[in-house]
Amino acid sequence: MRRQPFLRKAILIAMGVAVGMGVICLAVVALLPPPKEALFKDPLRSFLTGVGVAGVAYPLCALGAALQRRFASSPYFEGAFIAGVLNLAGYICAAVALVCLGFGVYDLALWLLK
User: If DSSP codes are grouped into helix, strand and coil, which group holds residue 91?
Assistant: First the structure.
């Protein structure tokens, strides 16, 4: 029986695209001129930050899931612990990304209702 690869090529490509997209979005946020109002009142920054953090979250979750699958039958706890830490970090990044995107939608809705 042939053993499955640790991460398939399509997943690696998706992880690379996500990290690249995240780096680009966070670089654009860093290069934008400072806002005239409060930082939380800028929907573009919120959206870009949310997409950037989501680009960091996906590879963490994918790698954590792959490690968890690989070390599922191992009697040692180190692999499962590392997978759990990666999953937790990915879920925290995903939650932060959703909060940033939610702030962006909220600020955009307030801006449209003015």
Answer: helix
For the question of whether the overall pTM of this predicted structure is more than 0.85, the answer is no
Measured distance CA(93)–CA(101) in Å, rounded: 12
Q: Which residue has the tokens 């966070």?
A: 26
CA nearest neighbour of 66 among 5, 15, 7, 11: 7
- Successive 10-residue mean pLDDT values, the chain, 114 residues: 71 90 93 78 88 94 89 83 93 96 90 84
Distance CA(93)–CA(26), nearest Å, equals 14
Within 8 A by CB and 6+ apart from 6, the residues are 66, 70
